[in-house]
Specification:
Helix content: 10-25%
Number of domains: 2
CATH architecture of the largest domain: Alpha-Beta Complex
Number of helices: 4
Strand content: over 45%
Largest sheet: 13 strands, mixed
Order of helices and strands: EEEHEEEEEEEHEHEEEHEEEE
Number of strands: 18
CATH topology of the largest domain: Fumarylacetoacetate hydrolase, domain 2
CATH superfamily of the largest domain: Fumarylacetoacetase-like, C-terminal domain
CATH class of the largest domain: Alpha Beta
Distance between the termini: 42 Å
Shape: globular
Radius of gyration: 17 Å
Oligomer: single chain
Length: 240
């Protein structure tokens, strides 16, 4: 099931994607379930937003048992601008799978970890590659586009990730063949993170770098697609 967070007629709402329409939900399904209002809206008539705004934290996996936290102010949605900061002359991107936590998790086992996951979405992980501090390098506003939707029944064994900059491919990964995105690895990531701090509903875990980053510059258009979830497209701007 695909869940969208969107803006329509000045209001923010949630809906279940049904072909070219959204079945309008009564509220945020992560907290209130999947009750519907009975209304439908056309996908073409709404603006898709970041499907989740983390209420607590974003856990960016760097390597085995190494991670940094990103603030929730890095998150933007489909079509939003990635702003290149004045503090960096070299900014790079990496398409990743994002894991969305749906239930409180503390010291959970790997066997029970997936029961705490609400779903999955596409992440464009942006990093100021020339800054020494990993925390600062990933903390700039707009440095984590998420979207276009959350897939609650994602099957990583049947899909692939593809990254484009201006229609030129820089990234092509079979998630079934990548040990960072298997069900076992996702379970282990959630379990490990929950052993360090309490994971709250809406928290995001970035599954880890795909080792194929690419530099971006002013005027680029970035597209990251995960089959079964969708395409996340964002323009890149360096302010004058």
């Amino acid at each position: 099931m695909k869940i969208a967070r969107y803006s329509y007629q000045g209001a923010i709402a949630f809906g279940i994607v049904d072909e070219d329409e959204l079945v309008v939900l009564a509220s945020d399904p992560m907290f209130t379930g999947f009750d519907t209002t009975g209304d439908r809206v056309a996908l073409a008539d709404v603006k898709l937003l970041a499907p989740v705004i983390p209420r607590s934290k974003i856990v960016a996996v760097m390597s085995d048992q190494e991670f940094v936290l990103r603030p929730n102010t890095v998150v933007v949605g489909p079509g939003d601008v990635i702003v290149l900061p004045a503090a960096s002359d070299r900014v790079e991107i990496d398409g990743q799978l994002a894991i969305i936590i749906g239930k409180i998790a503390k010291n959970v086992s790997a066997a029970g970890a997936l029961s705490r996951v609400f779903g999955y979405t596409v992440a464009t992980v942006v990093t100021a590659a020339d800054l020494a501090s990993a925390t600062r390098a990933g903390a700039f506003d707009t440095f984590l586009p998420l979207g276009p939707v959350i897939e609650t029944e994602f099957d990583e064994a049947a899909t692939a990730l593809r990254g484009l900059i201006n229609d030129e491919e820089f990234q092509a990964v079979s998630l079934a063949d990548d040990d960072r995105t298997t069900e076992e690895t996702v379970s282990a990531l959630v379990a490990f993170a929950s052993s360090v701090f309490t994971l709250l509903p809406g928290d995001v875990i970035l599954a880890g770098p795909m080792d194929t980053p690419a530099d971006i510059v002013d005027g680029d258009t970035v597209s990251i697609t995960i089959a079964g979830i969708g395409a996340l497209v964002n323009p890149v701007v360096r302010p004058d």
